[in-house]
Amino acid sequence: MKVAFIAKMSDKLLEHMIEPIQHIGEVEEIGIFRTAPISGNKIKWMVIPALFRKVFFLAQLYRVFQVLLHAREYDVLIGCFQIPHGMMAWLAGKLYGIPVIQTVISEIDKKSVTRFLAMEVVMKSEACTVMGPICKDKLIKRGYANPIEVIQLSNHFSGLSSRELPKKYDLVAVGNFVNEKDYPWMVEVLVEVKKAVPDFKIAIRAGGDTRRKFPEMIRSNGLSENIELLGYLTEEELLEVYMSSKVYFLTSWTEGLTTALVEAMFCGLPAIVTEVGNLPWLVRDGLEGRVVPHGNTQKMADAVIETLSDDKAQAKYKENTALRMLEVKDEFKTECIAKSWERLFKQISKKRN
């Protein structure tokens, strides 16, 4: 069996997604249609010449050409993020009669033209994966009748035993400086937090082009003494940052189930997050932390202030987090995720036959 991924993901996320499939004996090849090179067991990267990779438009055009040329060599096509990757998978699937699995990684019910197109692609797929039961229920309510599996990204932090380190940071946030993470709103919230907790500390580890704009935003809002921007961290260094923090903080306006949140909670951190995607499945309000509607600045600030000011609440959230991650840890283990993919492949095969 040969499967192909059409994706634009970081090396880390793509490797976590592919790893369980590499463990499936029946899968002999995993084709990767993306701009950046990647290698590994069973992986075949569809080469895009360096000259084309230098120009974004040319790279994407060449990738479409590669998909249309080589997709027929595979038994299953997997689209990761529907715009444009899922659309490429859908088009190739229609052309060659190949079943398509759409991986729904972000939230599905935000209203926009791109989200409408994304949902159309998902609804026409032979199967799909989601990152939690909330998104699964939403798809079923929309009338999706094909096989759905809740499939997480494998997480190597799932086998950790968290250890106590001196707490350097009250809060920690991890994620690229992209629109979805809404760092400008995070700054608004932290301005309000500082009025009540003047000496709070937050570590922010992120990448992306907009990082160059963020230091000025921090300075202009008087948060230079409160925010520490961290550069690139190895997995071991990131682990130490988690262990040196009290609470994980996330202000996204849309999410599926962010890997960083899962990592932080496996390290024993309770979390304060927005009420989007599958976040309320993992973090239950008042149990493993706080869940607040996105955009309500004062309510989010109050949640942070109350948590940082109440040691007993922190201890309760921390204890509940340890129990919660014990409950769900199998969902993030490579061998369990591999079984979910196997089940999905078998359902597709059975349906075709």
Please summarize what this structure is.
The chain is 45% helix and 16% strand.
Describe, in plain words, how this protein is organized in 3D.
The protein has 353 residues and is α/β, with parallel strands linked by helices. The protein has 2 domains: 2-154 and 333-352, Glycogen Phosphorylase B (Rossmann fold, 3-Layer(aba) Sandwich); 157-329, Glycogen Phosphorylase B (Rossmann fold, 3-Layer(aba) Sandwich). 45% of the residues lie in helices and 16% in strands. It has helices at residues 11-22, 50-53, 56-70, 82-96, 113-123, 133-141, 183-196, 214-220, 235-243, 259-266, 279-282, 297-309, 311-328, 334-352; strands spanning 2-6, 29-33, 43-45, 76-80, 100-104, 127-130, 148-150, 169-174, 202-205, 227-230, 245-249, 271-274, 289-292. Strands 3-2-1-4-5-6-7 form a 7-stranded parallel β-sheet, sandwiched between helices. The longest helix is centred in the last third of the chain and has 19 residues, at 334-352. It is globular. The relative contact order is 0.12. The mean pLDDT is 90.
CATH superfamily of the largest domain: Glycogen Phosphorylase B
* Mass-distribution shape: globular
Contiguous helical run count? 14
Distance between the termini: 15 Å
> What helical percentage do the residues reach?
40-55%
Radius of gyration: 21 Å
| Biggest sheet overview | 7 strands, parallel
Q: Which descriptors apply to this entry?
A:
single chain; 2 domains; Rossmann fold
What is the fold's blueprint, element by element?
Layout (H helix, E strand, L loop, with lengths): L1 E5 L4 H12 L6 E5 L9 E3 L4 H4 L2 H15 L5 E5 L1 H15 L3 E5 L8 H11 L3 E4 L2 H9 L6 E3 L18 E6 L8 H14 L5 E4 L8 H7 L6 E4 L4 H9 L1 E5 L9 H8 L4 E4 L4 H4 L6 E4 L4 H13 L1 H18 L5 H19 L1
Parallel strand pairs: 1-2, 1-4, 2-3, 4-5, 5-6, 6-7, 8-9, 8-11, 9-10, 11-12, 12-13
